[in-house]
Design goal:
Blueprint lengths: L4 E6 L4 E3 L2 E3 L4 E6 H8 L6 E3 L55
């Protein structure tokens, strides 16, 4: 399977890098994705993505539900009540006197 390519523009041409040739200034060459990431990482390497050569994609519209939209929540189940401590269990010492435990 072929790796996707990225159109790279080199500001100062007349050179060959990683087996790709930019014959003149501003030339655009399709470079395999991995190689393109390597070249774009070079500081002051004069490489940029030639985005004017990429297909223009219109962003999808985002729609928000209007105020008339019904918002529903699942109905609570019968066992969704407050959990009671087990019969005969002792409160954790940290909770004694804080009003967070049941009376003995």
């Amino acid at each position: 399977m072929n790796e996707p390519t990225v159109p790279l523009r080199k500001a100062s041409g007349g050179c060959s890098v990683l087996g790709y040739m930019w014959p003149e200034d501003g030339a655009v060459v399709d470079v395999e994705y991995g190689d393109a990431m390597t070249l774009l990482a070079i500081q002051d390497g004069d490489f940029t993505v030639a985005d004017d050569d990429l297909p223009k994609v219109k962003p999808a519209a985002v729609t928000e539900p209007g105020p008339e939209a019904d918002v529903t929540e699942p109905a609570p189940t019968a066992d969704a009540g407050v959990a009671e401590p087990k019969q005969g269990s002792k409160p954790h010492p940290r909770n004694v006197g804080r009003g967070t435990t049941t009376k003995r």
